[in-house]
Design brief:
By secondary structure, the protein is an alpha+beta fold. It is built from 15 helices and 24 strands. The strands form 4 sheets. Strands 6, 7, 8, 9, 10, 11, 13, 14, 15, 16 and 19 form an 11-stranded mixed β-sheet that branches. The chain has a 5-stranded antiparallel β-sheet with strand order 4-3-2-1-5, with no helix packed on it. It has a 5-stranded mixed β-sheet with strand order 20-21-24-22-23, with helices on both faces. The longest helix has 22 residues. The protein starts with 6 loop residues before the first helix and ends with a strand. The N terminus is likely disordered.
């Protein structure tokens, strides 16, 4: 007899007996009537009831009980309700495109219903015309999204930055657990912060240090950047947005608020780019997905290296100002249709939708050694007494015949813990191993370091990082037959730098583990 999947429910009643109860919303009864649970219904996901009882919050399998009372939902007409709050960039284009792709795959029709204050509902309809699900979008910014989740007013946060320590602590205090856990947060797609100017602006590149100088007010004229003698008009996203907060975090420019009238904020990225594209003296920081007719500046370093934002450099995190796009989920169980949607967005079909919507997907790509001439040239330029020619020859010999995957791994500052995008990459690579994508192939985890310290020590650190990432991927690939894949590790320390190390971000970019495949 199917009663409850949560055995604790029956155990509680067997121990305490059934006491007189006040009138409540619902009563859930087992088929033989031996067990009853009475309480206030908190939610129903089409399969499970959540009920607030005198024993606390209980989750009960709907297939094993009957429901009586005014709060009981209709099983036949159940509509999955999912509320999303946060980033306007994700709400306006990316998630609607993914919902459309999910609907097409599963035979639903869609309807978009406007709501006040630029909010909207995306409704999924069955072929009979009945509503199957309603995705409600509350369009604001990342700060508001986390506030809504912590207040239990949203199911999913759309965030353009990782959750901050204060928000993470408040979530713990609210009984939501660790919001950075594997089942609580995920990278939906990838984006980057890019400096943009009007097409007629003569400046073609900018150093990260100069960009931070503009943001802090220390640089205010284009002549200081190799341009005309004209003041720089700065354009940034609205202060509460995740992208604006990521800009402050990455570029360490705490005096943005002191720029006064030289700074303009925009609540929509598309508006920011449109204004910058028509002003020859404007400089903006925008989303890579929303550059439109504006021209993107190349980032350069004092040592001569340069990095340009493109799909591959963002996927690999070689471009330093990457900005993963996150979904944060509650500890409670979401409706089955919502869980199906979240599974879909990780699949190959969704990666195509993400790419067509103008964002950077997470599908791994292969980069042959032949098209990595700039990296090898940088390595030769940066080589010194501690990285002799023999070390570079060893690197080329080991990687000859292999291709680099765009799946890379970097670490949180001052930590051996992989950063948010890398944690997502661990999951993606593990799933590919489970699916047999690398059967009869060789995978090599290759560790690199920055140039701080002796070369021998850096090689040892790089080797430990490669081992740690390999072990994390293997642990996550629980159902993979690893005997079918040859998995190796290698390390070359500081021999292949990606960026100049005169700034913290450059050293961070160089500390990485790459994956190469044959």
């Amino acid at each position: 007899m199917a009663l409850f999947r949560a055995a604790i429910c029956a155990a509680l009643f067997l121990v305490t007996g059934i006491l007189p109860l006040k009138a409540q919303d619902v009563t859930l009864s087992s088929p033989d009537g031996a067990v009853e649970i009475t309480g206030n219904i908190l939610g129903f996901d089409g399969e499970f009831y959540r009920v607030d009882t005198k024993f606390g919050e209980l989750t009960v399998d709907g297939s094993g009980v009957s429901c009586e009372g005014p709060g009981c939902p209709s099983l036949s007409d159940f509509v999955a309700e999912i509320s999303l709050s946060g980033s306007s960039t994700m709400a306006e284009v990316l998630l609607p495109a993914l919902i459309e792709g999910f609907a097409l795959r599963n035979g639903f029709q869609t309807r978009r219903d406007p709501m006040p204050e630029n909010n909207f509902d995306y409704v999924l309809l069955r072929d009979t015309g009945r509503v199957a699900a309603r995705f409600s979008f509350f369009v604001s910014n990342t700060d508001e999204g986390f506030a809504d989740l912590l207040a239990n007013e949203a199911d999913i946060v759309m965030a353009l930055r990782e959750i901050r320590s204060a928000e993470r602590e408040r979530a713990r205090e609210a009984g939501m657990g660790d919001m950075t856990g594997a089942q609580r947060s995920r990278v939906l797609a990838l984006d980057a912060m890019v400096p943009v100017v009007a097409p007629g602006n003569p400046v073609r590149s900018i150093s990260v240090a100069d960009l931070a100088g503009v943001l802090s007010g220390n640089l205010s004229n284009w002549s200081e950047l190799g341009g005309p003698n004209a003041p720089i008009s700065l354009h940034l996203p609205v202060a509460g947005s995740g992208l604006a907060q990521a800009i402050s975090d990455r570029l360490e420019a705490p005096n943005i608020a002191a720029l006064g009238t030289r700074l303009r904020r925009h609540d929509r990225g598309s508006t920011l780019v449109r204004v910058v594209a028509t002003d020859p003296f404007a400089l903006g920081l925008a989303s890579f997905a929303e550059t439109s007719t504006a021209r993107v500046l190349t980032l350069r370093g004092a040592c001569g290296f340069s990095l340009r934002a493109n799909r591959r450099s963002i996927k690999t995190e070689d471009y330093p100002l990457t900005a993963p796009m996150f979904l944060y989920l509650p500890s409670r169980r979401l409706p089955k249709l919502a869980r199906d949607f979240l599974s879909y967005v990780r699949g190959p079909g969704a990666q195509i939708v993400i790419r067509r919507a103008g964002f950077v997907d997470q599908a791994p790509e292969r980069i042959s050694m032949n098209v990595q001439g700039d990296r090898l040239a940088n390595a030769i330029t940066a080589a010194g007494s501690e990285v002799p020619l023999e070390e570079l020859q060893r690197l080329v010999s080991r990687l000859d015949g292999l291709q680099r995957l765009t799946t890379s791994f970097r670490f949180e500052p001052g930590s051996t813990r992989p950063d948010a995008q890398s944690r997502s990459n661990i999951t993606q690579l593990a799933r590919s191993l489970e699916a047999g994508a690398y059967d009869a192939r060789e995978l090599v985890f290759v560790g690199f370091s920055d140039g701080d310290g002796p070369a021998s020590g850096n090689r040892a650190i790089a080797m430990k990082r490669a081992e740690a990432v390999r072990d994390a991927v293997i642990a996550a690939a629980e159902t993979a037959n690893l005997e079918r894949t040859e998995i190796e590790i290698a390390a070359f320390g500081e021999a292949l730098p990606m960026a100049c190390e005169d700034q913290r971000w450059g050293r961070q970019v160089n500390r990485r583990v790459e994956v190469w495949v044959r």
